[in-house]
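Internal tracking record. Fields below are filled automatically when a chain is submitted to the structure queue. Please do not edit lines marked as system-generated. If the sequence contains nonstandard residues, flag them in the REMARKS field before resubmitting.
Queue: standard
Priority: normal
Entity type: single polypeptide chain
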Amino acid sequence: MAVIWGLSFVLVLHVVGVFGWVGAVTFRALIAAAILYLLARATRRTLRFGSLVPLVVLGGTTVAGQLIGLNLATPRIGTAMAAIFVGTIPLFSMLIGQLWGLERISPTGRVGLLLGFGGIVALVGFPAVPVTPTFVLGCAASVLGAVSAAFGSNYAHARLREIGSWEQTMGAFFFGGVMTLPLLLLVPVPTTPTPADYGWLVVLAGLCSALTYVLYFRLVAEVGATIAISVEFVVTVIAVAVGAAFLHEPLSLMQLVGAAVIILGCTMVLGLLPATRAASSEASETT
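SYSTEM-GENERATED OUTPUT FOLLOWS
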């Protein structure tokens, strides 16, 4: 899942360039929902959606909000920086989980949160490119996408435990695509796509959305939002490596330091370091 998402940034860059940031979200989401529906019918899978309201919320956050942020950001700040911002999702997830009473932040986790947000400051404040309105817009969109993803994951863990991962994924992408569809009147498709462009769009929707999100929502139900979303660490590493090696995207030394600090902060928040695991175990035993 992490490898697919890490490599998907290159696809996102191409699809957004052809279909526009609205079209890339809308068509990707609706195609992903259609693929899952057809697979469910072909395999005679029984679908039980329950109330549609939670799926609308999930579609508006995990799909529409997150993908709008990603599609706006990637062409403006590059795949590497966009991926590093994606790596901040566990920070926002833990913060939201704490506010909702779904998770508890240890003292070490609080230090990790501060480190993580300090890394974001380093990432934005010391870029290898000029700070232009386009760069600022890309950074703001990245933060919007990260917060939306964190909110949606916690919401799914709190409200959709009884709904299967197929239903969650199908419903979220369908409603996310429907929500962004009217925006095509304001931001139409900028070019005439070729058959190859449609092919890459289907790959992005089927492989990087339908398949991976079915696995992801299953993880959210089983291990919780923040732990499941920690897969973004590996996503970030792969996407940064691809951006640097193949797209020759520049990153300043301070930005690399900021990325390392973000990952360190997230590992502290999640209790993945040996010392923090021991502290978390002791805290759980005392409670």
